[in-house]
Fold each of these.
Amino acid sequence: MDYLDELIEDRKVNDPFFAQVWAAIQLVDELAKRREAMGLSQQEIADRMGVARSRISEIEHHPERVSFARVLSYANSVGAQFAITGPLSTTISTTPSKGRPVVASGAKYRAKASRTKLDD
């Protein structure tokens, strides 16, 4: 394991918000690889989803900025399926007044201002 891998692992353990964003990045990276392996262009996926090609680029390059519903739609467009396994270790809710994600892990609560959309 190189230094970057160690740094990422450390951040995933010590920062629940980073762990969430990293998971989204890895998921979308796998979906993009699947799209490419299928020989599909971003435009073809956009047509399947009924969105502009720029939305597909945004999903692939900035998954932390798009809703999970949009990522699921992308996944459906490339024929991917999801299974939830293991225990849920992090809870996410939205604060009513600010609309920003709040990540709760154990007894620690940390509000995070981000560009991440939880809802479309």
Note: The chain is about 50% helix and 10% strand.
Amino acid sequence: MNFRIAAVAVTLVALLSSLGGAAQAAPPAGAPQENAVQVSTADAEPGRVAARGCFDWHSAVAGYFGWSRAYPSTCAVFGRPGLRVGYAWAVPLFSNGRVCVQARGYKLIDGVRKARWFGMGCGTSGSGTVPWGNVAATPAVRGKVQLGFLGGAFSWRH
């Protein structure tokens, strides 16, 4: 047994022990599992594994009189030095709306990574990347309706 497998096994046993007792055998195939996290690699970038739904489109509503509240993702991003997180957004086809969207990223200020909002553009769709770095946090967006337009609904993903 090589060192990496042994380290993973020790970590897994410690995690299971901290969750309430000794490690138990897995339930039979097809049996319902409570609190199970499904993992999918179908939509993930190479080298990335994500829980199901992490790259799905999320709904948001832009503010009419200023920036809306933050709409967080259902998944967190565990960063690394130099990481940039990509966002995309779009107004529904049936809408007469145009919005401006900002995405949350993390900027190094005085040696500390601090959350900041970065512009992702205005109109009916857009995309971009934001600095993230070595931060574990949840991506989020906010929006506001462009003057003279109706409708503030939009979808986004990271």
Note: The radius of gyration is 20 Å.
